[in-house]
TrEMBL record:
One of its GO terms (molecular function) is secondary active sulfate transmembrane transporter activity. Gene3D superfamilies: STAS domain. It is found in: Membrane. The chain crosses the membrane at residues 96-123, 130-150, 170-189, 273-293, 322-350, 362-384, 399-419, 457-480. It comes from the Eukaryota. PROSITE patterns: SLC26A, STAS. The keyword Transmembrane helix applies. This is Solute carrier family 26 member 4. SUPFAM superfamilies: SpoIIaa-like. Residues 586-657 form the STAS domain.
Amino acid sequence: MDAHSPENLYPYTVSRPIYSNPTFEEDNERQAREERTLRERLSRTCGSVWTRQALKVVKGVFPVIDWLSRYPIREWLPSDVISGVSTGLVCSLQGLAYALLVSVAPVYGLYSAFFPILTYFLLGTSRHISVGPFPVTCLMVGSVVLTLAPDDHFLLPGNGTGVNGTEADGIVFLPIQVVMGLLQVGFLVRYLSDPLVGGFTTAAAFHVLISQLKIVLSVPTNNHSGCFSILYTLIDVFTNIRQTNRADLVAGLLTIVIVMAVKEVNSKFRHKIPVPIPIEVIVTVVAAGISYATELESRYGASIVHSIPRGFAPAQPPNTELLWNILGSSFSTAVVGYAVAVSVAKVYAAKHDYTIDGNQELIAFGFSNVFCGCFSGFVASTALSRTAVQESTGGKSQVAGIISAVMVMIVILALGNLLEPLQKSVLAAIVIANLKGMFMQVTEVPTLWRQNRADCFIWLATCLASVVLGLDVGLLAGLVFEMGTVVFVVHLTFDMQVGFDSVRVFKKRNKALKKIHKLIKKGKLRATEVSLGVDNKGFESEQDSGRESGQVEDGDWPVPEVEVRVDWALELPVRVSVPKVQIHSLVLDFSAVSFLDVVAVKSLRLVIKEFLRIGVNVYIAGCDDEIVRKMEALSFFDEEVTRDLLFLSVHDAILFIKLETANGSMQDAMVEGVRDPEIKCLTAIMLSVIHPRLSAHP
């Protein structure tokens, strides 16, 4: 009904005396206008806005300000303390052990287990990861150290070249990771697919095993890095195998067996054991006591840790002459360390229902590494085993990380000298025992071969290249092979004659049908199938050129971003409250999708579950039988994402949505407020994954 029609006109009466200016001023007091300077006006107008923006920026750079002010002390602090103590003990021992991978004295491993935690507490966004040494990045830094200090005394504290190399490596991480974070290029890690990361970490496990084997056997070897370093090291080991120290060998083998056995018990009975048995701590303390009591070094020639000086090394700038020599290797190490840390952080963020900021993680690890490098530490990332301890023992936030740093500090200041009799073979054995998870990734190869052979080839190529050529060159080779595989699969197209595009028929039915049927009869209409890959862009026909001129079609309805607000005051798992969105259903048009890889299927399932979580139903239309079989092979369907979301066409899906809406089965209350049924259809019409490229042949 027209608002200006006579039926909608109402009287509006005003009754007051006739005022002249003098009369009005007599009855009403004039208020003097407040005079403000230009500075005061700008301050009043923009001050509050600038203050809010500045506070937002500060909270973005220092997330601790946001969550620490709402930290529930009574509910979370006891759990964080228990978790921090347990994690701190494990972190101390892993720091000592992983220092052998970096080819520096064990005390520098303690520094690397302490300093990065302090910076990450202020800048990081993950609540559960344990920041510190990671064997893969440690080995990559160790290869750099060996190129800078290729002598036989790299484990002696007096040798400063290797230490300077680790410092310089940490300093280089600042511009690499921080600049990547500021430029918002954290998305580049998405190109490190799961098969590529799996093959790379498995190859790194082989490198770690060989590097620690010579320490367990305690045989003299030359230090090798680069291509065929594993082969050269094995030749040296078997050449000098007769010089094996029996005391070190026995201690190493016993440690491997005991640690792996107890870890299996922890894994099998994790639901019954409230706190995992800290077997690394127990074995280390017992081994140090036995070595001290039996004088293994003097009587049997065992190789021990020797000196662990108390206190911290003074801060010092790195040797700038070394920076340019390690720039290339530092970039690959920075990418690997960040990719591993973010992957682990996402696992626990999804488990506990909160989000992390990938670009902020780059900044956090960049500053953590440079801060650690100034105090003679080496590169920090995270380790899944250590993070699992922190989470399984009840860790709720990075307060547990600070408690673990306090435990490491106690070891550095007071307890370090008690570990001086410890055999190095015990530390090397602890490293080897923690490689089981990486080696078990080999069992994924047969599954990948059955699911997607392209991903299987990526896994094998990356693993083989990293084993033979070295980790840094192998990672680059794996990336090149992956991108080449994606390009090959994407452009491996074939033609298929089609009748019509169901989406356009739905929107412009009569006109489209007449035109399309004429083209089909003449044999001039074809659609080229394409693959859904990392470098795909939406294809468009000449009829779509109106979009470039700013025209918006009927189905292109804007959808606002959903801001997720996490209530930190609640006990985990946290609840996520989201505002109402303007759609209740989403139809994905898969009619032109001819290929899905493992990563795409996992991502699609995650996206669908995220939409279901905020009350938006998702449907897939026009999905090819081969794609459906691929989804079934990759376990795409479960109790939440069922086969009922599949429809033959977009039109079928739209009719189903209209029927469900008419029957009142839609759960979204927004549906009740929509007046026009056609608007509901258009609101929920589709999110086209990829548009077919139409071409007319003469």
